[in-house]
Each structure stands twice: as C-alpha cells, then as structure tokens.
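**User:** You know discrete backbone vocabularies at least as well as I do. Would you mind producing a protein record, from residues through to fold? Write it directly below this note and I will take it from there.

**Assistant:**
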Amino acid sequence: MKMEKLVDDNTALVDKLKQFRQEHGELTARMDKHMAASRQLSTEQAVLQESLEECKGSKSLSLENEELLWKLQNGTLCSPKRSPTSPAIPFQSPWNSGSFPSPSVSHSDDLPGSQRQTDGVSAGLTPPATAHLLP
C-alpha cells in the first residue's frame, strides 16, 4: 500500500509538472507577443514624435510668414529695427550722404539773367524712387 501511494503521488506530480510546463509555454508566448507589441509601439511613437517636431517647425514657419506678411502690409517691415539699448540712427537720404556726385551748379555770373541753382532738385534732378524696393 505504501508503494501504491508513492506511485499515485508520483503520477500526480508528473501531471502537475506537465501542467506547469504548458502554462510556462503559454506565458512565454504571451510575453513574446507583448514584447513585439511594445517594440511596434515604440517605433510608432518615434515616427509620431518626428512628425510632431516637423509640424511644430511648420507651424513656426507659418506663424513667422504670417507675421512678415502683416509687417509688409502695414509698412513696418522696411523700417529699421532698433534695440532698446542702441542709439537711433536717423535716416539719411542719398542726396545728403555723398553717395551720388553732386550736380553741376551754375552761378549767376556764369549764366546772365538766370537764377542761381544750389541743389539737385532745383536743377531738375529728382531723387531715386526706393519705395518699391521691398525685400
């Protein structure tokens, strides 16, 4: 009887061992599926993160473009930008800057009866049109 009890116990233990091995195989397969899903999700997250960064860059460029268009329409784009610490530099026209050669000046003693001309405007010269030259 003692021998029969040991055989029965051994058989029960063998059955439990088979059951545990089967559960172990199922859990291992389940764990492999979870690892594959985790790798796929990590890859998708990286792609989405990159796409998000591109969208942020695109949005930033869109906002900058909108701001520049607004400045262009309101005429603030062509005015010089000054920092609060830098001194203001007054606009100097090309007529006063020495960039252009000065027009010939005729004196009243050169031309009898004519009026003395002292600047380019009275000499019939007009300043260059620069308003249409926007960046």
Summary: Residues 2-74 form the longest helix (73 residues). Residues 13 and 19 are 10 Å apart (CA to CA).
